[in-house]
Amino acid sequence: MTASGEPRDQIAIRHLGPLKGTIRVPGAKNAVLKLMAASLLADGRYELTNVPAIDDVAIMGELLAALGVRAHSPEPGRLILDNDGDLVPLAPYELVERIRASINVLGPLLTRCGEIRLSMPGGDDFGARPIDLHVASLEAMGASFKFAHGELHATADRLHGAEIALTFPSVGATENIVTAAVFAEGTTTIDNAAREPEVVDMCDLLVEMGADITGIGTSRLVVDGVERGSLKAADHRTVPDRIQAATYLAAVAVAGGELDIVEARPEHMENLLARFVEMGLDVSADAGRLHVVAEGRLHSIDVPTLPYPGIATDYKPLIITMLSVADGAGIVTENLYPGRFRYVEELIRLGANIRTTGHHAVVRGVPRLSGAPVRAHDIRAGAAMVVAGLAADGVTTVSGVQHIDRGYDDLVGRLAAVGAGIERI
Ligand code: EPZ
Is residue 405 among the annotated active site residues? Predict the structure, then answer.
């Protein structure tokens, strides 16, 4: 540990030449955490597969254990959750403040137990990350909320259906409304619902458990409430991680080479793949596999981030890193988290030419970056630093790797296996 208590681990990267080989994409962090939270809804044993080996899964496992659901992993990729119905709807601060997805226990516990005490959620620091849409929607379903001492106390005898029109297609709010509506009296409709593949994955599990949900994958979800106790535990395979798949595309884009990215879901990344082709990547996709060839210098493009099926904000640090060595200038506009540009200073430390103004970044490509010590400020920014190291002369060392470990399953090992000069030190 360093003096500030941060793990001393770092990742060292050097460009050794084109990448070549096959990388398997693990399950999605932003799906599996919600699948785990859904296990609060019904007693029994759940088996989740394609579970990524990431720290956030371990933290969510600890949180579920504190709430009354036992989690254990008999082997890598498999997670068993045992819910014997002895739930304690009190989510401890020291766990909740570590991950944003802790907010996803709100809907299940409120609708199942009629009450929950939860401190305000943590997670990556992008500036303000309010939960007003969660609260307003659950209040429309009959819940009451009290805030005191940094803690949210929500109660509801039995929630009732409601017509909810979200002012923004929030992923987390959509997920909490759906889980809460599963046992609500009557029908809940959600207009402008989030359509992310991870939201779909959670809804699919709920239907496998016996919930009555229609419109999955569209911006209008309809949930007909069923009796408490009528849901059953179920097994489910986690959807692949499109953000991790994009990370390996970005790596080969800046290092050059040829990769097969398997167990991906190209249909979840259509918009991004089209933009990467515009940038000069040769990408072909068939069932569960992406084949990519990167030759020559990338071309600059302009990109706005948007809710799904738009370009996800989580892809943006990767895109800005690619643009920093592309031919020309590109403007990237952040429409979800205006403050999500902290990694830009780190890219500038590596010699990138980037100016941010408001929620825009103007990136003027340079031929090469130059290796230096940089810091990972959050999960996606950390992965972008590793990709940047593959586009730099000399050695780049990335500190703050605990952020990367939260959301990436063996990033170093997967890249090293296809020829990247990368190691954990
Ligand atoms: C999920 O966060 C993901 N996290 C994020 O990924 C991702 O960036 C985000 O969705 C958008 O795609 C998880 O799934 C754990 P939102 P979430 O509610 O649910 C505003 C990663 O790196 N908003 O869709 O918190 C909010 O401020 C992480 O894996 C409100 O104003 O995102 C933001 O501007 C980072 N009020 C926008 O909506 C609310 O009540 C999107 O937030 C809720 C959200």
Answer: no
Phi and psi angles of residue 29, each rounded to the nearest 5 degrees, phi first: -55, -50
Please give the number of the atom of ligand 1 that sits closest to the Cα of 380.
Answer: 22
Q: Per-residue pLDDT tens for 261-301?
A: 999 999 999 999 999 999 999 999 988 899 999 999 999 99
The edge-to-edge listing of strands for the beta sheet with 282-286 is 19-24, 257-262, 289-294, 282-286
Spatial contact of 419 and 17, defined as CB atoms under 8 Å apart:
yes
Residue type, position 52, single letter: P
Beta-bridge partners for 419:
none
Residue 8 CB coordination number (10 Å): 9
For position 1, what pLDDT does the model report?
A: 53
Strands 289-294 and 303-304: unpaired
Answer whether 330's CB lies under 8 Å from 300's CB: yes
Ligand 1 in reach of 147 Cβ (< 6 A): no
Per-residue pLDDT tens digits for 22-72: 999 999 999 999 999 999 999 999 999 999 999 999 999 999 999 999 999
User: Which one, of 385, 404, 412, lies nearest residue 54 by Cα?
Assistant: 404
